[in-house]
């Protein structure tokens, strides 16, 4: 029996990470009846796992910091491909969003004079990350959930019902967005536990579903991250941009298979851990790029001295930027010098006394002992790059989070543009707050201006039901096998280093997988059936993978999270071209080029001419010289 329960809301927010919660709070504060729907438990989202902090130019630690410096850092980090309006709003509004969290009860670490403390992070010119030890994401989610509860208590006083204006639907997966003509009319999904269906009748939907990591075999992402929001948007007629840009973290666990990709913190290398290949060589010395030659040690002796004397020695090459280290590890493995389980060795055991390791890296010690039965005080870890974050996502209006489809909004990792070709650490948590709030406000304003309420079509509900039910009981292919083939293909052929032949090969495989996905079957009933859930998720993963591969094939340059072996240089011509994915009439992904919007005069003149020269074409430089005069 598959009952479809029905709920009516003004705004449905899909996702309960930082972006979704902040959007829902805003919509509710603007008087809208709001639903928060999330695939797993309430409170379990990637946002909880974020450690570093939220980047906001409050200037608490260094008074020279301000939004303009943060804006410049963000544009540099994204190699100038960012949507500059988003980068501007983000830099200007992040401090207010952090103070607001504090007003809602977040307890950030303090400076000596009692201000919110800020820490240094890669790519940020000044100490800028507001943090709570190494569990900032947890505090952020805790605070936002507390705010939701506070609003529910207000509603209980006014309306006698805690859930009158904001309600959480946890362990509920959305599989389709519904439309009335061009406009959003609702969302359709199922309960994970019972398999029963749910219909949300709503004129506005905010997507806040996070990442796509599960399309890769090695990823730091957890099971929910199957690119659902990306695919839902595409299927509803919205566009995705920048899909070729994916951030690979250099060190994830590679063994055992069940924990492959789980993050191994950068602190291991910061505290003296070194990378070695199967021949015992500290190979990072072989991979110092020309531009960094003067900043990194060229001998092991100098590198080792750096840990105790940073003023007179250069940094060890293990601490090169993430993309450099990830590419080096990848190259060693490809050259046949990898570890038995297909990574390289990361060793602290011969570098620090056992007690020191346990004191400095307690969670890593615990993680390897528990998950891999490896004692990192006695033997090396095996690590390799892991798919971590997608810069690409739903193309949105910077100010309102609105997608191309009326009534559809997106914020957080599922949206694209803000981070350009590469995200700086710490800019994600602030992104969630700034654009979560804006998307919630955008959705509320949209609902206010609606001339009439869109209607849910019974036909669309029925077809969503049929689509979801199709794999159940069908004696088709095993969804786990199809998933694994997709993951391997993306990992091996559209991974850190890409070349035309390999990406084309991946596209052929994806094309076949698309057909096979239509035939997957899951045995058992609709009650708590993970095989069935995966069969449903596969549609999304295959679609998103096709977008990544098609865009990666088109972009003939290397920039940020997109490295082409056959086009190793960054090309200013390509900075002006954004790749936009959409679905044509059939199910084929189309990729079109779109001109990058010209940066506003007052923003571009924040940069030095010499710096701009690295990124802009001669034509653009001539224009800049006109403005700068
Ligand atoms: P998420 O927090 O990912 O939440 C997504 C939500 O959508 C979840 O509630 C999920 O259940 C729900 N959802 C998904 N699909 C559906 C569906 N079909 N139906 C219903 N609900 C759905 N960033 C930093 O800035 N600093 C860090 O230190 C940092 N560390 C990280 C460590 C790890 C291990 C990982 C994986 C990421 C880290 N990141 C870090 C990245 C950052 O945490 C994420 O990019 C960010 O939290 C994404 O937030 P979000 O609100 O967009 O989505």
UniProtKB/TrEMBL annotation:
What the entry lists under InterPro entries is as follows: FAD-dep_OxRdtase_2_FAD-bd, FAD/NAD-bd_sf, Fum_R/Succ_DH_flav-like_C_sf, Fum_Rdtase/Succ_DH_flav-like_C, SdhA/FrdA/AprA, Succ_DH/fumarate_Rdtase_cat_sf
Q: Where is the FAD-dependent oxidoreductase 2 FAD-binding domain?
A: 10-429
Residues of the active site: 322 (proton acceptor)
Q: Keywords for this entry? A: FAD, Flavoprotein, Oxidoreductase
Q: Which cofactor does it need?
A: FAD
**Which residues does the UniProt record annotate as the domain Fumarate reductase/succinate dehydrogenase flavoprotein-like C-terminal?**
483-591
Pfam families from the UniProt entry: FAD_binding_2, Succ_DH_flav_C
Q: Which GO terms describe its molecular function?
A: steroid dehydrogenase activity, acting on the CH-CH group of donors
The protein in question is named Fumarate reductase/succinate dehydrogenase flavoprotein subunit
Please name the source species. Nonomuraea aridisoli
